[in-house]
Design goal:
There is one protein chain. By secondary structure, the protein is mostly beta strands. It has a single domain, classed as Beta Barrel (Thrombin, subunit H). The chain has no helices and 8 strands. It has a 6-stranded antiparallel beta barrel with strand order 3-4-5-8-7-6. The protein has a two-stranded antiparallel sheet with strand order 1-2. Strand 7 and strand 8 form a beta hairpin. It starts with 6 loop residues before the first strand and ends in a 6-residue tail after the last strand. The N terminus is likely disordered.
Length: 119
């Protein structure tokens, strides 16, 4: 039986979550930088792709928080492309937008990464 504890979330508007208490399965790490994202809208028969730049705020094994210039529809599929840096190769992460809140400088979005299938 799991004894997960609740964590009080900071009241800073950038770090605030929808609920004052939140259960997280992974630790967030602050991360700053720009990445490219591709959002997929519409149905699978005729999807519309939109490319945008995101300003990263934090990341965990299960998702990320970022600032977007435009509103992103909740539940939309998103690919986030992290560029190569030094000897490290670039990589992509796929997920779904689970939060999109209006802020002074754009929209605070939350992305939940899609879980990889077990081999």
């Amino acid at each position: 039986m799991s004894h997960a504890s609740l964590k009080l979330v900071a009241t800073d508007p950038v770090d605030r979550d929808v609920l004052p208490f939140e259960r997280r399965s992974a630790r967030r790490r602050n991360l700053r930088g720009r990445v490219t994202s591709v959002q997929k809208y519409g149905d699978s028969a005729s999807p519309i792709n939109k490319i945008d730049s995101l300003e990263l705020l934090d990341i965990s094994d299960t998702g990320l928080g970022a600032l977007a210039g435009q509103q992103i529809e909740l539940g939309s599929s998103i690919s986030v492309m992290f560029p190569a840096h030094g000897p490290e190769q670039g990589f992509d992460r796929f997920g779904y937008v689970v939060r999109c809140d209006r802020r002074d400088k754009g929209y605070l979005i939350g992305v939940r990464f899609a879980m990889k299938a077990a081999a």
